[in-house]
Write a structure and sequence with these properties.
EC 2.7.7.65; diguanylate cyclase activity; Nucleotide_cyclase; alpha/beta; Rossmann fold; Diguanylate_Cyclase; Sig_transdc_resp-reg_receiver
């Protein structure tokens, strides 16, 4: 099934006819004969969309819309009202009550199904983003967002020269707080200052469907892909209206460029666009939080290990070498014991900053343990890796750390580093190389700390010191 739809109508024949149409389009159909039954069904069965008659036995369609919008379980459920012969005033009342659209009876099946596909596509996309956002909140990765109310940017695009929009845009500017600009189709695809939150494509001229090409281009253009699009057409252009919805229009004005109707529809599209943007941003933040160390801002073990595999595969493909540097801060426990964990955290942050500032853009440094860091260096020879390791050792040990909480003059911090490169004689999995770097790190630790050791047949302590003689650690320890 492509969606669960609730039909609300006091006339059984109307419900049956509509149910047959929707079932043949593979929708799951629920039915209710009154507004009260509909509200109960919404609470218990959570439909994806509601189609309701405007004249129910116990309430009007507008009242049903208002009560649905007040339900905590379904404030955003799309609602389409069906009216025997809606006039402009009835359409405005329905939209003001919270309806997403109002269609006349007998229902045009072509337009109805296109409208259902459009509304459900947007609903399912938002539900997926909300699900990920709820998961992120459950993990403690997000706080409830603050509501921001700032003017939106709306681009009004007439696609035929015989269409005048200035009078309508003047009304919109007077009645809404948003910023409106009129532009040609060519200008719409090259707007400066970022993407508008909403495009209004006005296609009410003599050539039906003239704006469909622009709609397709906007949906295919990365800068504008997430913008909301409202498509304006004429009542007789039913095929073009259905095509606009299927091509990605978020909303449709099927009876011309009406300022009053647009005043009711635009705020909903702006709100939905901003909600989707916020949810996408939260999802990206959640992904970053999952692979980033929150203290230092470096990547964590979850990210660096798959990255290491990709670097290894590329090295084999390009017949190039790469290197791993495993770095551990010496006697770090004594810093925590003497000055507290807050000072220890500040030392870790400063060490991460010094390392990041002294590596190539292509190198990746990650925090993989308490005071342990891993550096992945693609396209790196043995000599380059050893020079980089010695440079990192030096920038950490040469200048005392002067973070808050340490005595005046700071405290010297040193690091031991194990270096490993894949053997040329045989293919070596990244996890084996990581193990060799770990054993080289232990050689550096056991040789007095503040040292660089290279993993070979037997791990060898680096004898040369291009930067200067390394100061020895003051005391041995774990």
């Amino acid at each position: 099934m492509t969606g669960r739809i609730l039909i609300v109508d006091g006339v059984p024949t109307n419900r049956i006819v509509l149910r047959v149409r929707l079932s043949s389009a593979y929708y799951e159909v629920l039915q209710a004969g009154s507004g009260a039954d509909a509200l109960l069904s919404v609470r218990l069965q959570r439909p994806d969309l509601i189609i309701a008659a405007a004249d129910l036995p116990d309430m009007t369609g507008e009242v049903l819309c208002q009560q649905i919008r007040a339900l905590q379980v379904a404030p955003d459920t799309p609602v389409i009202l069906i009216h025997p012969a809606p006039d402009r005033l009835q359409r405005m009342r329905a939209l003001a009550a919270g309806a997403d659209d109002i269609l006349s009876r007998p229902v045009d099946e072509l337009v109805l199904l296109a409208r259902l596909r459009s509304l459900l596509r947007a609903r399912h996309a938002e539900d997926e983003l909300r699900l990920r956002d709820d998961t992120r909140r459950a993990l403690g990765l997000a706080e409830p967002p603050a509501e921001l109310h700032c003017p939106a940017r709306v681009a009004v695009v007439p696609v035929q020269a015989d269409v005048s929009v200035k009078a309508v845009v003047s009304t919109l500017r007077a009645r809404l707080p948003d910023r409106f600009e009129i532009c040609s189709p060519d200008e719409a695809l090259r707007l400066a200052g970022g993407a508008p939150e909403v495009f209004v494509i006005v296609d009410t001229g003599s050539v039906a469907g003239a704006g469909l090409s622009l709609l397709t281009q906007l949906r295919a253009s990365p800068p504008y892909r997430q913008s909301a699009i409202v498509y304006v057409t004429r009542a007789e252009c039913r095929h073009e209206a259905a095509s606009a919805l299927d091509l990605g229009a978020n909303d449709l004005l099927a009876d011309g460029f009406d300022a009053e109707e647009l005043i009711l529809r635009l705020p909903k599209q702006i709100a939905r666009k901003r909600t989707a943007d916020r949810l996408r941003s939260n999802m990206r933040d959640g992904l970053r939080a999952a692979v980033t160390d929150p203290l230092t801002g470096l990547y964590n073990r979850r990210y660096v290990l798959p990255h290491l595999t990709r670097v290894a595969d590329r090295a084999i493909e390009k017949a190039r070498s790469y290197a791993l540097l495993l770095l551990d801060l010496d006697h770090f426990k004594t810093i925590n014991d003497a000055h507290g964990h807050a000072v220890g955290d500040a030392v870790l942050v400063e060490a991460a900053r010094r390392m990041s500032a002294n590596l190539r853009p292509s190198d990746l440094v990650a925090r993989i343990g308490g005071e342990e860091f891993l550096v992945v260096m693609p396209d790196t020879s043995e000599n380059t890796a050893l020079l980089a390791a010695e440079r990192l050792r030096s920038v950490i040990s040469k200048t005392p750390f002067t973070v808050p909480g340490l005595p005046e003059g700071g405290r010297q911090v040193t690091a031991s580093i194990g270096v490993a490169l894949p053997r040329r004689t045989r293919a070596e999995p990244p996890e084996i190389l990581l193990d060799r770097a770990d054993r080289a790190l232990y050689v550096a630790k056991n040789s007095g700390r503040n040292q660089v050791a290279l993993a070979g047949g037997d791990c060898a302590l680096l004898a040369a010191d291009p930067v200067g003689p390394p100061p020895r650690a003051a005391a041995a320890g774990p």
